[in-house]
Structures are given as structure tokens and as C-alpha cells.
Amino acid sequence: MASRRDPAGCRVGLFGVPYDGTTSFRPGTRFGPAAIREVSTGLEAYCPQLDGDLEMIAFADLGAVTIPHGAPEPVVAAVERATEAVLALGLAPLMLGGEHSISSGAVAAVARRHPDLVLVQLDAHADLREEWLGARHSHACAMRRCLEVLPSGTLRQIAIRSGSREEFSELRGSDRLVPIEQMAAALAPLRGRPLYLTVDLDWFDPAVLPGTGTPEPGGFLWGDFSALVEELRHHQLVAADVVELAPQLDPSGVSAVLAAKVVRSLVMLLNGD
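Below the sequence we write its predicted C-alpha cells.
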């Protein structure tokens, strides 16, 4: 909705990565980018919270990354190249997934431009495993791989509620785990630094977003995301991704609508007005 195909004069470049090769529970996130585009016309272009209108914003939809089937490593490399291409156009990258394993490719490209990059994760899961089911680039290892390409090492994981004993031991021994009620206070000291936001949609409660591969009860609602948006208005958001929508798991289509609304907010934040 309201996007352009020609990136000339645009500030934000949106692209899709239809991949779910390491999905270990319920597949289907490869259909996520197309579903977000399809339902986007059901939203208003205007966002009251941000007082922004997509019709007044120059952003480009650059289509889908051509990815190989099979192992995740070539996919992550393709995502990295695609993100570099978007940055070379002078655009802020906004990636639609696809599963969470793709994020490390985008983070690597953005971190080369911004060595002091801050990574903020919305997710039900810690994603800090070294490997999962024999794959180091599994969706369950997304943040572990991101940390390897994040020179600053600055990661804030907002209200993680699921993971292994080892993952939570690591989280509790670090400054990464941020309770939902401390979200704004924890992020405020990072204002002024470039920020990458990765949104795994299973952060939302499955009552409002059932269309995801690994739903986890006890999640969050739109108002919680709006609170983050309010804080991000004071930050330098330079890139973002929205991943793990499996639209066929929600026959109502509401999950895709919520995902599209997240994307609408992020386009406006990345636009910088």
C-alpha cells in the first residue's frame, strides 16, 4: 500500500525473504511477506499515533530476494548482499520474513555501516542456542549469530518468555533481558545511537497473533508495541525486520493484518519524520 517500485527519492527500502528452511515446528513463514503485502490495503494509510500517512512518505517495495532452497547459510549470505544493495541506494532497510534465521545477514550489513549499532529484539524466545537440530543458522540461533556480527555487542531482548535453562542463565547474568515494564527506561540511555529493531511476531500473544510457527502463551498486545513505538520516536532507527508470520495458520487473516500494522509503524519510524 502506497509504496513505489522506483527507489529514486525514497528513504526506506522494503524487501521480502520468503524462507523457512530451518523451521522446526510449524512451517509456513515463507508465505509471510506476500501475506503482509496482500492485506496491507485493508489498513488506513494514516497512523494516529505517529501522525503519519503512508501516502505522504516516499518508500520503495523492492520485491523479494532470490534465495536458494535448502541450507540456511547461502540464504543468510543472500540477505546480507540484498541489505547491502538497499543501503547502497541510500535507503533504510525494512526486511519482511520469513523465519528469524535471516536476521543475522541483515544485521551484518547494517553493522558495517554503523559499528556502534544497537540491536533490539522483540521475541517470545531467546534465540541464543549455539545450534539447533544440527544447524548453526537455525531460527533458534538467530540472536547468537547476530551477536557474532554485532561489533558493539549491544543487544536488548525485550520481555523474552521462553528458552532453555542455559539461555536464561546467560540472560540473567547480562544486561540484555529487559522486563516489559522497564522497556522505556532501559532503552532511553541508548538514544542517539543507531538502532536495528528485529520483530519476531511470536512476541505478541497467540490470542491476537496465532499465525506463527512457534506460538508461546503469555505474550503481549498492540498497546505494548505502541509503548515501544513511543520510545523509538526518540531513537535513530536505521533498519528493521518483521519475521515469523505463518499466515496459513490463521484462517481469519488477523495475524497478517497485525503484522502489516507493525510494518506501517516501522516505515514511518524509519522515514525519520
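The helical segments are 32-40, 72-88, 103-113, 142-148, 165-172, 183-187, 222-232, 254-271.
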